[in-house]
Amino acid sequence: MYLVQFIAVVSLMELTPGPNMGYLVVLSLTQGRRAGLATVAGVATGLTVQAVIATVGFGAIIADHPPLYQTMRWLGIAMLAYLAVEAWREEREKPSEDSLAADLGRHFLRGFLTNVVNPKSLVFFIAVIPDFLPPPPDAALHDMIILVAIYLAIATAVHLALVLVSARIRPWLSSGRNQTLVRRASAVALAGMVVWLMLGT
Predict the structure, then answer these.
(1) N or C: fewer beta carbons within 10 Å in the chain?
(2) 8 A C-beta contact, residue 120 and residue 19
(3) Domain-wise residue ranges, the chain
(4) What secondary structure letter does DSSP report for 132?
């Protein structure tokens, strides 16, 4: 019963608009499927690191020390603000084969960094997941691992779907003047997420 409830909660949370959802859609619309998939891999890795941090107890330490939490929060906000500015200014050219691997590595790193310092997922790991664990002394490490694995699987599935759908409609939006309009609109959307993070976390 708890497992079904947990899956429902995670699914609802991941389908609610947030920084990851917005950035992946923006990136896939402006730079394509490969960039989006590389970022999804980075996001999943960053969330895994946060899960490990929460599991070993460091997440609670961060939550109990407001300066540490605020540092993480503002790092995440600064990273997203940087991506918004870059999206506004960047004129994309078709990448060469030599630069493609470097670009994919850059997208992976950005996905990773924005999620290592993502306050939304940190709070989920330290405040929500424990509510679905068996009460002590029945709770065990493998229970936590199972819930984290379910969360990562659902989050990654949603992220992949967003990337694939956005990349599918990209050709309709990326011709001529539309490309600049989409890029500028994407930058504004990212800026809106920066404001949301500042006010809502």
Answers:
(1) N
(2) yes
(3) 2-12+30-200
(4) G
